[in-house]
């Protein structure tokens, strides 16, 4: 379905003009023997006006083309090239540059720029200075639908999403040498008086009269006085730039790829651009029609060419032949070969050990090898220690209270892992100041902390546990732009801009498993089993896998009376399964009885030599209990997505050894999470203090049990997409890569 995007240009010249309601252009089908000049005369416009709306017309026109012709109303209000004229002004007694600037409604810099001696010298009574006068006309708001041969949008002056004037769009001027004037130095003339008289810098006089670098000016010296005119300075050479409105979730690499430039060139065109693009932000891009731009294809990955990389190096790194790269990227031939920063489309099955962030491949690297040694950071830790409920004067009662209160136990475990990370970071050369706050699981306590404490020097906050408290802290500290690392909350919620949801949401887990199945199912048959509570999940899965089979659950009258729930009957499976085929079964339920029913039935078929593998997109709690036999899960090679990797107790990782040495106990999952999250956060800060920007540079990181791969969702918050696919391998489990 073709969509028409309307881009509205608003020029600010002291006022904002309202949106034009009348049609802003007309269409003209080119006739035989017509030229741009004859068409322009017919519509009372210039050929340049037509080319502005039809860039391809520069290469010539033919009878297959339909041109957009600007209406007279547009041309009547089109902004003209900014011109500057000058008037001479004689400085009066006690006048200042600021006072003169106010008088002529220009800036102090405008005066100094055209009177360069004022950068170093004082304003003198009676001296003659140049007063610039700028001329430009307003433009009506223009709405241009993007069609096959229309430009994206074009203007000369515009503000970005933050209301700032795009510096690259402001007309800038420079002095252009056009010739010389002969001058014979007179009695009492000095370089300063000559610079004042001819309105040029002393250095400019010396530059073209080099003997003055080593000698004083004398009467009778014959000089070349350079003459300049003001011309518009275009730092981008012959590149024709136009305004572009950033689309939702469109990062820098996507914009660069779309317009056939590098990310470095995009930054050059937009010096005001921040670390990340915002939805609706106005930036400058090369002027290309919609048909000339490249659209990102979600079925491919993309790779940014590094310095000195050729086709052989790409083959070694990505496992892709030169012919395939050229086929997918025809612009290579147009540009005469590969160039640094070029973004290539490549097949998704490319080889190599890469992170994938928003389809863009980034090379894995060890954060510990990339940190700034000696870096110092301050972290605020907000956790529900609930010390107000623990009598520390009575060790026995305190121990019992902690043992009986699961929240306090988990909090202390998390904190113990956090401290281990701080100590290890110290060994790596990093300094960390830790400010600890007991939020006590009470809103009033958190409110008091936020009201009383000064967080101006805080680099990051770890905590609190509850999402409602995370939102409160994020809102309070948003003005300071302090990142909030939410340790455990994983629900799909709208986050504040400064929140990092460090635990992957359920939707991320489901999406990871769906992608795994799509990438690996091959010619196997897919069977979906879901209860009524997961009907919506089932329907979504059927959309993802339209060829999948599904089974309806059944219930006898007696079972209905006894409220025993619905089950899968063996004969229903017998009607679908044959031994010659291999089946992947997706089971979606939180019901432990149905879970035991299905796994038991499927295991019986496996014993009868049916080829069946069991999957789920979200692992229910009953899988970790005695309700479902581990033997059944092992026989079915059960696959599930997981936030953390399954660590084997007694393993050889250094963290577990050090933790046992310090606390004489095996670390719990909470302790491991505290360590992993804190270590990752400290290393990211030591790599780049801007956690938001570094999330795009770093890609995926992994520690003892947890992965961290942050991606931004629109303009709201960062979500961790670091998920494991785990499968039963006999009676143990392992990660599927």
From TrEMBL:
Pfam families noted in UniProt: LysM
GO MF annotation terms: lytic endotransglycosylase activity
Source taxon at top rank: Bacteria
KW Cell membrane (keyword) present: no
Residues spanning the signal sequence: 1-20
Keyword tags: Signal
InterPro entries cross-referenced by the UniProt entry: LysM, LysM_dom_sf, Peripla_BP_I
Residue ranges occupied by any LysM domain in the UniProt entry: 26-81, 87-131, 181-231
PROSITE patterns hit by this protein: LYSM
Identification of the protein by name: LysM peptidoglycan-binding domain-containing protein
């Amino acid at each position: 379905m073709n969509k028409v995007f309307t881009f509205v240009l608003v020029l600010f010249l002291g006022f904002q003009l309202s949106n034009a309601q009348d049609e802003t252009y007309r269409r003209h089908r080119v006739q035989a023997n017509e030229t741009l000049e004859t068409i322009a005369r017919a519509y009372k416009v210039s050929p340049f006006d037509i080319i502005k709306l039809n860039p391809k017309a520069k290469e010539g026109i033919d009878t297959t083309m339909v041109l957009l012709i600007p209406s007279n109303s547009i041309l009547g209000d089109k902004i003209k090239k900014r011109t500057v004229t000058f008037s001479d002004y004689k400085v009066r007694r006690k006048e200042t540059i600021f006072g003169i600037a106010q008088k002529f409604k220009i800036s102090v810099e405008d005066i100094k720029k055209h009177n360069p001696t004022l950068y170093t010298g004082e304003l003198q009574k009676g001296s003659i200075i140049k007063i610039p006068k700028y001329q430009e006309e307003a433009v009506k708001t223009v709405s241009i639908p993007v069609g096959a041969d229309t430009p994206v949008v074009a203007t000369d002056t515009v503000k970005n999403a933050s209301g700032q004037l795009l510096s690259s769009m402001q007309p800038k001027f420079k002095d252009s040498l056009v010739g010389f004037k002969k001058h014979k130095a007179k009695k009492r003339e000095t370089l300063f008086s000559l610079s004042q008289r001819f309105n040029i810098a002393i250095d400019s006089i010396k530059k073209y009269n080099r003997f003055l670098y080593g000698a004083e000016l004398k009467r009778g010296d014959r000089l070349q006085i350079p003459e300049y005119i003001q011309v518009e300075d275009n730092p981008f050479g012959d590149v024709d730039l136009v305004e572009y409105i950033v689309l939702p979730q469109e990062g820098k690499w996507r914009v660069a790829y779309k317009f056939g430039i590098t990310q470095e060139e995009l930054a050059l065109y937009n010096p005001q651009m921040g670390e990340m693009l915002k939805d609706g932000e106005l930036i400058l891009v090369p002027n290309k029609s919609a048909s000339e731009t490249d659209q990102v294809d979600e079925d491919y990955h993309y790779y940014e060419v590094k310095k000195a990389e050729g086709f052989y190096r790409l083959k070694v790194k990505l496992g892709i032949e030169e012919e395939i790269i050229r086929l997918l990227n025809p612009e290579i031939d147009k540009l005469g070969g590969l160039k640094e920063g070029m973004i290539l489309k490549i097949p998704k099955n490319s080889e190599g050990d890469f992170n994938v962030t928003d389809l863009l491949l980034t090379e894995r690297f060890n954060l510990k090898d990339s940190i700034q040694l000696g870096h110092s950071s301050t972290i605020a830790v907000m956790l529900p220690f609930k010390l107000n409920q623990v009598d520390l004067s009575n060790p026995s009662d305190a121990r019992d209270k902690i043992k009986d209160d699961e929240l306090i136990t988990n909090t202390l475990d998390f904190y113990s892992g956090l401290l281990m990370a701080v100590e290890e970071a110290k060994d790596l050369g990093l300094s960390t100041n830790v400010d600890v706050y007991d939020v006590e699981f009470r809103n009033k306590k958190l409110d008091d902390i936020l009201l009383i404490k000064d967080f101006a020097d805080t680099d990051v906050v770890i905590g609190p546990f509850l999402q409602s408290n995370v939102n409160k802290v994020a809102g309070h500290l948003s003005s300071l732009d302090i990142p909030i690392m939410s340790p455990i909350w994983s629900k799909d919620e709208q986050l504040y801009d400064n929140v990092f949801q460090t635990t992957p949401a359920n939707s991320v887990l489901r999406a990871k498993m769906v992608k795994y199945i799509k990438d690996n199912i091959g010619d196997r048959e897919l069977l979906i089993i879901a209860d009524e509570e997961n009907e919506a999940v089932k329907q979504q899965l059927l959309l993802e896998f339209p060829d999948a089979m599904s089974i309806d659950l059944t219930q006898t009258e007696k079972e209905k009376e006894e409220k025993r729930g619905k089950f899968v009957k063996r004969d229903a499976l017998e009607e679908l399964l044959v031994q010659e085929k291999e089946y992947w079964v997706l089971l979606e339920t939180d019901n432990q009885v149905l879970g035991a029913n299905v796994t038991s039935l499927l295991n019986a078929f496996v014993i009868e030599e049916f080829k069946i593998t069991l999957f789920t997109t979200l692992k229910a709690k009953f899988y970790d209990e005695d309700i479902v036999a581990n033997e059944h899960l092992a026989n079915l090679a059960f696959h599930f997505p997981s936030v953390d990797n399954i660590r084997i107790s007694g393993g050889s990782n250094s963290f577990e050894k050090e933790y046992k040495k310090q606390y004489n106990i095996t670390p719990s999952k909470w302790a491991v999470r505290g360590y992993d999250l804190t270590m990752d956060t400290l290393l990211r800060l030591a790599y780049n203090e801007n956690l938001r920007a570094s999330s795009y540079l770093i890609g995926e990181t992994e520690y003892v049990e947890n992965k961290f791969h942050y991606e931004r969702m629109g303009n709201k918050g960062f979500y961790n997409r670091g998920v494991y696919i785990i499968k039963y391998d006999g009676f143990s489990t392992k990660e599927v890569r």
